[in-house]
Amino acid sequence: MMDTTLEQAQQEIVDEFAMLGDWQDRYEQLIELGKELPLIAAEFKTEENLVRGCQSRVWLTAEPRGETVHFTADSDAMITKGLVALLVRVLNDRTPQEIMSTPLTFIDRIGLREHLSPNRSNGVVAMLDQMKRYALAYSTK
Amino acid sequence: MTLATITPVFNVEEIRAQFPILKELVHGKPLVYFDNAATSQKPRRVIKAESAYYATINANVHRGVHTLSTLATEAQEAARETVRAHINAKHAHEVIFTSGTTASLNLAASSLGQLLLKKGDEVLISGMEHHANIVQWQLACERYGAKLKVIPITDSGELEIRRSDDQMIRQLSDRTKILAISHVSNTLGTINPIKELIAEAKKRGIITVVDGAQAIPHLPVDVQDLGCDLYAFSGHKMYAPTGIGVLYGREELLEQMPPWQGGGEMIDQVTFEKTTYAKLPFKFEAGTPHIAGIIGLGEAVRWMRDYDLSAMAAHEHSLLEHATKELLAIDGLRIIGTAKEKVGVISFVIDPAHPEGLEGRAGAGVHHYDLGTLLDQQGIAVRTGHHCTQPLMERFGVSGTTRASFAPFNTIAEVDAMVAATKKAVKMLR
Q1: What is the set of domains in chain A, with CATH numbers?
Q2: How are the residues of chain B apportioned to helix, strand and coil, as percentages rounded to the nearest 5?
Q3: B176 has which bridge partners?
Q4: What is the domain-level CATH number for residue B372?
Q5: Are residues B166 and B208 in the same domain?
Q6: How confident is the model over B388-406, as a mean pLDDT?
Q7: Are the Cβ atoms of B367 and A56 closer than 8 angstroms?
Q8: Chain A nearest CA to B97, separation (Å)
Q9: Same domain (yes/no): B247, B322
Q10: pLDDT digit string (tens) for A94-108?
């Protein structure tokens, strides 16, 4: 279990990004986050774990750990990977209940909402849906 | 010097002034629009013509006896004649209005499939086709038990043909019934030698279908000179509104082809026993057409013809040459599509700068999604991804490219802005 709530984790990210200046700082931060995200081992980069985007590819794995769900994720594009890293950071090791019930507002609040537009086809929206589906699946077990 | 000897000077600022959208800011920066191969921007004249139709003569065509219906019909048919003259078709009724290239090619595949294809027959396309010139042929082949054959692509992005051979296209056989091929590749910019290909196909009695979506904005197209049977294109890539396109068809063939969609406008007599069809072009224009779009298309053609198309093409070519030279200076940048004959389209990927001995991510490759995103932040609109040509991406072993495509309103300064923005993005990402 995490010692902060999902809402607090979102607020932390909003605060971090608030300290950054222009678009370049925000994207550099995102790219750095992408670089820091532990890579998924090649054996998990399977068709089964692939979340289809049209432009960039995202891989996602999930496993139940006690009361919570543990995610790992990766992408072939750096900016997508940064967004993926943020989603994993706020949703990882939380209970299915919390994952499913807390609205995710931080992406909008850090000025990156355009990446959630269906037009972007980057796999991030599909990944979020998939994380919630895993949460639902584990909550009913 | 007499007036007649003065060659028209291409004035890019005069052209720019006619496109209202170029004054828009994106992320607070002046818009640099390099996504013309996806859709071109519209000159004020076209926007006005379309809205003037709605404001002054809106009525359904070919049915009413009232004045507005007559005016709308006249305007629509005048546009048809304008398009006919532009592509040098023999008759205005050889110009069929559709919703775009995709619809034109679906009409072609569906109707020609029914007319021509039998079990064991073959349809020949190329490896650089847009999905819009692949999928409906696959469907037609499946329906009639025919086979889809493909002309392969060379490393430079040209068709693999042999001019020295008796048979230039090796994939042609006695069973080939249809050759469906793009005039210009949307992803690579390659201009295909379609006149030669059509001539070879015709010798063998093969019906030829040309996807002209990417050619018509850049090249003079003379359908009689090309000798093609069908030629498809969209309005929206040639400065006209979206939702309007054309299928040109040779009269004799169109007469034989069965209708594609049924409904109003396309009938002569309807009884429950049998329907007889309207004459060309209406046999293929079921339902109320996109009248405003047709009028906008006519105006777009008139706008293009007010300029010297070859001067526009020369300007686009200078943009292409400049972009090619400047982009190649970026470490690891590789251009996909280096054909000798190209329109103003440049597709590229950024590979790792130093394949040997990478330390961390220094010098790593750049994903097209990342580059497109960071260019957008700098006001530059390019296209990224597979450009609806997945088989072509597979041929080149890439998951996608970044593509800049030029129009006459683009400038050398804009190309420089794109190159600088690309360098900045690469620096951020590596």
Answers
A1: 6-139 (3.90.1010.10)
A2: 40, 20, 40
A3: B122
A4: 3.90.1150.10
A5: yes
A6: 95
A7: yes
A8: 29
A9: no
A10: 999 999 998 888 988
Looking at CA atoms only, how far is residue A56 from chain B in angstroms?
6
B375 located within any domain: yes
- The share of chain B scoring above pLDDT 90, in percent, equals 87
pLDDT given at position A40: 81
Cβ atoms < 10 Å from Cβ of B165: 9
User: Does A54 participate in catalysis according to the annotation?
Assistant: yes
Round to whole Å and give the CA distance between B153 and A138. Answer: 49
Query: Is A61 in CB contact (< 8 Å) with chain B?
Result: no
Closest to A136 (Cα-Cα) out of A100, A101, A111, A82: A100
Percentage of chain B exceeding pLDDT 70: 96
Nearest CA in chain B to A82: B370
Which of B161, B266, B339, B388 is an active site residue?
B388
Q: Which residues face A50 on adjacent strands?
A: A59
Residue at B362: amino acid letter: A
- Same domain, yes or no: B265 and B229: yes
Tell me the average pLDDT of chain B.
94
What is the predicted pLDDT for the residue at B9? 64
ipTM greater than 0.85, yes or no?
A: yes
Give residue B54's Cα distance to chain centre.
Answer: 27
Contact: B369, A35; criterion CB under 8 Å: no
CA B311, CA A41: separation in Å to the nearest integer?
A: 55
Q: What are B33-78's pLDDT values in tens digits?
A: 999 999 999 999 999 999 999 999 999 998 778 999 999 999 999 9
Residue B134 included in any domain: yes
- Chain B residue set in contact with A, beta carbons under 8 Å: 27, 361, 367-370, 372-374, 377, 384-386, 399-400, 428-429
pTM above threshold 0.90:
yes
Select which of A1, A54, A136, A137 is catalytic.
Answer: A54
Lowest mean pLDDT among B155-169, B343-357, B412-426: B343-357
- What six digits make up the tokens of B152? 């392969």
Which segment of B6-10, B34-38, B63-67, B419-423 scores lowest on mean pLDDT? B6-10
Is B400's CB within 8 Å of A24's CB?
Answer: no
B176 CB burial (10 A radius; 0-12, 13-18, 19+)? buried
Closest chain B residue to A28 measured between Cα atoms?
B428
Q: Residues B124, B167: contact at Cβ < 8 Å? A: no
Domain range enclosing B329: 3-30+308-429
Q: DSSP states of B169-234 as a string? A: STT--TTEEEEEEESB-TTT-BBP-HHHHHHHHHHTT-EEEEE-TTTTTTS---HHHHT-SEEEEE
Nearest to A54 among B370, B372, B385 (CB): B385
The region, left, alpha or beta by phi > 0 then psi within -120 to 50, assigned to residue B388 is left
Query: Nearest CA of chain A to the CA of B127: how many Å?
Result: 21
Q: Which residues of A touch B399 (CB under 8 A)?
A: 57, 76
